[in-house]
Amino acid sequence: MPSPPPPPQPSPPELPISEHEDEIMAAVEANPVVVVIGETGSGKSTQLSQILHRRGYTRRGAIAVTQPRRVAAVSVSRRVAQELSVPLGDEVGYAIRFEDRTSEKTCIKYLTDGVLLRESLSDPELKQYSVIILDEAHERSLNTDILLGLMKRLIKDRASDLKVLITSATLDGLKVSKFFSGCPVLNIPGTLFPVEKFYSTEHPTNYIESSLRTAIDIHVKESPGDVLIFMTGKDDIDKMVSKLEERIQNLEEGSCMDALVLPLHGSLPPEQQVRVFAPAPPNCRRFIVATNVAETSLTVDGVVFVIDCGYVKQRQYNPSSGMYSLDVVQISRVQADQRAGRAGRTRPGKCYRLYPISIYQKEFLEATIPEIQRSSLAGSVLYLKSLDLPDINILKFDFLDPPSRESLEDALRQLYLIDAIDENGQITDVGRIMAELPLEPSLSRTLIEANELGCLSQALTVAAVLSAEITFRSTRSKDMEGKRKRQELPDGSGWGDHIQLLQIFESWDRTGYDPRWCSDHELQVRGMKFSKDVRNQLSQIIQKIAKGSTDVQAKKERKSDPDYRKLRRALCVGYGNQLAERMLHHNGYHTVGYRAQLVQVHPFSVLEGDEYGKLPVYVVYHELINTTRPFMRNVSAVDQSWVKPILKKLERLDMNKLSGGSSGSKDPEPLEDKQVSSPKKAMDVKQSDVDSKIQAARERYLARKGKK
Ligand code: CDP
Ligand code: MG
């Protein structure tokens, strides 16, 4: 139980939340669930937890504040620690996946919604908390939506000693209140100043260029005040920052005040994130170039001008094809208004919308589609199944906005193919272990299989590198696009990308984790170090939950398994739902499963063909992504014999049984007849009828090889 901290200092009084302290507290005392709606920057994230702490709510448990974004959990907890003058990690701490900065002392804990979900697996009643604040609920992240459903159950069990607060900048309060059987909704009036909006007459063909022009215009013509520029992603931000710096330098000396250009996005190193919250130097205009993280999660003070390109980068999952796409899409009207609002926090501001008003009115959606309706749900469904709630039928779980039936069925199929649930939809022992690992289902399944096969150490490395989301592609040299510098980096020995990731990490390991080796190979030192750290953590977790697992030396494994057979076999089991078969007479693939898609190996892949240029018959892939066309990303070769059991399972798959929870007959609604297309007969690799096309391809390949 956390011990009370030293007497807290009062928080800055000027924030709207602080002015409504008594009203909020009265509602919280009288109700198990309260919804608090207040403008971005009104103090919900930083002040509510402190108010509850001052009022004694941390005496019998800690306060959890969830954040959908990692960067927000870190930055808000840092701020609160500062306000309370305590070191971060003592009374105030944060926990995000693979990084825990809390201690026994911690009584105000900021954590991502995913981390809270995982905590609830080992402690379903979340007893260590007296208050749970689901912050930023308007973001409608997948995990927050699941937590909403969970809280609804939890407050029944812990009616006497748990308070739940749901906070939001824009959420439809009535809808949430209805969901929680009419809980009170407190609206905290904002102190926004008017923001004048300017529209472009047409859609820009190049939003970076028109953002640049607008930024320079503001800098030259407008009075002091910082400029917040919304871009869609890190690449655009980097481009924008360097171009803007260049143009500012080219301005005539003394024609305007000094300028400072700062990026702001989720993958920024912590030192750089902090810079945005530090006060601006005197007589200097700051340009903050941000993703939509600055829309509602993070408030940067001093912004008077906003430039809004009208786009956001959004990942969407299509359950019928199993494919992801990362699209730059138009924002919603709610988002546009949030962006504009950032300009009016300290005084009247201006917002430059780089799109015509007609687009805003007629083309933008009213609100953003919740993530639960555009994500793969395999991980979430596995989580819900592992809760063992007696009356839980996944297709009927109480969601604020339910996902489509198709998407839930897709999740069930995936989980069945990787043995997390059995044919009756019941969670298996393997599934239980998987749910506890902080990894996506395919990687956790791979680890469990690798443990059985005796190649856990290698699999841990692969899972860690993939989860650390390191970009191997250097940002410096553009000519590196294409294969990852294969002359110098290990090449996966032709087996594919997972093997290459393993080899890269092992090469670094052999240098004693020398940072110079990373820079010599144009690999980010920070990312590599992070993957090493993630690997250690995963190793500890799996040894704790899966008895009998040992993370033995990878070197020994390699000697006894020159073709990485064990590891590739483990991958085949783990990615049983992400398998593709090469098409006859062709190097293209079709995905194996209930709906075959035509896909190609991503050009960045190091997977190689045989001596005749033929790619392997079966491969597993980490991800299907639809960019210019459907590609498999991170691909490795697997053996035909390993695939057979998966094909068998596909034949047996019966959606009615799978979806029924304990038994198929319980589900009263008849499922539409979704005939599982039986997987194509595995083709014979050793086909002797070499037709002329293959012959020609072979000759071309040999000719190319000869030239090298
Ligand atoms: O959550 P909400 O948007 O309502 O506001 P908040 O995040 O609690 O921010 C309240 C104030 O704290 C704002 O004026 C922020 O600028 C400031 N803040 C900060 O300076 N540094 C942070 N890391 C977070 C908030
Ligand atoms: Mg907030």
UniProtKB/TrEMBL annotation:
<dbReference type="GO" id="GO:0004386">
    <property type="term" value="F:helicase activity"/>
</dbReference>
<dbReference type="GO" id="GO:0016887">
    <property type="term" value="F:ATP hydrolysis activity"/>
</dbReference>
<dbReference type="InterPro" id="IPR011709">
    <property type="entry name" value="DEAD-box_helicase_OB_fold"/>
</dbReference>
<dbReference type="InterPro" id="IPR007502">
    <property type="entry name" value="Helicase-assoc_dom"/>
</dbReference>
<feature type="region of interest" description="Disordered">
    <location>
        <begin position="657"/>
        <end position="693"/>
    </location>
</feature>
<feature type="domain" description="Helicase ATP-binding">
    <location>
        <begin position="25"/>
        <end position="189"/>
    </location>
</feature>
<dbReference type="Pfam" id="PF21010">
    <property type="entry name" value="HA2_C"/>
</dbReference>
<protein>
    <recommendedName>
        <fullName>RNA helicase</fullName>
        <ecNumber>3.6.4.13</ecNumber>
    </recommendedName>
</protein>
<keyword id="KW-0067">ATP-binding</keyword>
<keyword id="KW-0347">Helicase</keyword>
<dbReference type="InterPro" id="IPR027417">
    <property type="entry name" value="P-loop_NTPase"/>
</dbReference>
<dbReference type="Pfam" id="PF07717">
    <property type="entry name" value="OB_NTP_bind"/>
</dbReference>
<dbReference type="InterPro" id="IPR049945">
    <property type="entry name" value="AAA_22"/>
</dbReference>
<keyword id="KW-0378">Hydrolase</keyword>
<dbReference type="InterPro" id="IPR002464">
    <property type="entry name" value="DNA/RNA_helicase_DEAH_CS"/>
</dbReference>
<keyword id="KW-0547">Nucleotide-binding</keyword>
<dbReference type="GO" id="GO:0003723">
    <property type="term" value="F:RNA binding"/>
</dbReference>
<feature type="domain" description="Helicase C-terminal">
    <location>
        <begin position="211"/>
        <end position="388"/>
    </location>
</feature>
<dbReference type="GO" id="GO:0003724">
    <property type="term" value="F:RNA helicase activity"/>
</dbReference>
<dbReference type="GO" id="GO:0005524">
    <property type="term" value="F:ATP binding"/>
</dbReference>
<feature type="compositionally biased region" description="Basic and acidic residues">
    <location>
        <begin position="666"/>
        <end position="693"/>
    </location>
</feature>
<dbReference type="Pfam" id="PF13401">
    <property type="entry name" value="AAA_22"/>
</dbReference>
<dbReference type="Pfam" id="PF00271">
    <property type="entry name" value="Helicase_C"/>
</dbReference>
<dbReference type="InterPro" id="IPR001650">
    <property type="entry name" value="Helicase_C-like"/>
</dbReference>
<dbReference type="InterPro" id="IPR048333">
    <property type="entry name" value="HA2_WH"/>
</dbReference>
<dbReference type="Pfam" id="PF04408">
    <property type="entry name" value="WHD_HA2"/>
</dbReference>
<dbReference type="InterPro" id="IPR014001">
    <property type="entry name" value="Helicase_ATP-bd"/>
</dbReference>
